[in-house]
Amino acid sequence: MKNKLKLMVMILISMVVLTGCGSKSPSEVVDIYFKEVKKGENSDLEKYVFENMGKNKKSEENKNPKMEEALNEYMSKIDIKVLKEEIKDDKALVDVELTGPNFANITMELLQESLANAFNGVEVKSDDMSNTILEKVKSGKIETRKGKINLTKVDKEWKIKNDEDSMSLILGKSDTLKNTSN
């Protein structure tokens, strides 16, 4: 009886130890990803934003302290809550609720203002544009949106797919574009 009890305890301890040493769940990976985003430590998101602003890479010559400050300010305002997780083979889908500013709306406002200035013959300097973006990020309205984050298992670890869905969740969708698609 003692041997069976010892065997059961050993099996139970082994299960706990092995479970604790396993890889992170998709929800944990998403949570860690957004904690990095919030701290400004996620270079994938930063790279995506800079590429979509017409800069191929974030190089020393492309650095703009106000733009970096605006991006860090934006990312620091992002919070997520994992709602549910679905795993099928080597693919996972994590439903999240994200709270943060809408970068697409900020960009659209900036574009409209730039066009108005251009038609009125007002020249806007790059530094003024950077200051405006920073002001808009700081004063931007916080909204809540829901979306899905896709993950795939690579070498026994879950990796987030930085696809169009996850980026539009993080950056938001322009109200102007939402209204034209309805």
Descriptive key words:
single chain; 182 residues; four-stranded antiparallel sheet; 55% helix
- Strand arrangement, major sheet: 1-2-3-4
Radius of gyration: 22 Å
- How does the major sheet shape up? 4 strands, antiparallel
Principal-axes geometry comes out as: elongated
Structure summary, number of beta strands:
4
User: Strand-residue fraction?
Assistant: 15-25%
Structural class by SSE content? alpha+beta
Topology:
Layout: H1 2-20, H2 26-39, H3 43-52, H4 65-76, E1 79-88, E2 91-101, H5 103-119, H6 126-139, E3 142-154, E4 157-160, H7 164-171, H8 175-181
Antiparallel strand pairs: 1-2, 2-3, 3-4
Helix pairs in contact: 4-6, 5-6
Describe the structure.
The chain has 182 residues and is of the alpha+beta class. 55% of the residues lie in helices and 21% in strands. It has 8 helices and 4 strands. A 4-stranded antiparallel beta sheet has the order 1-2-3-4. The longest helix is centred in the N-terminal third of the chain and has 19 residues, at 2-20.
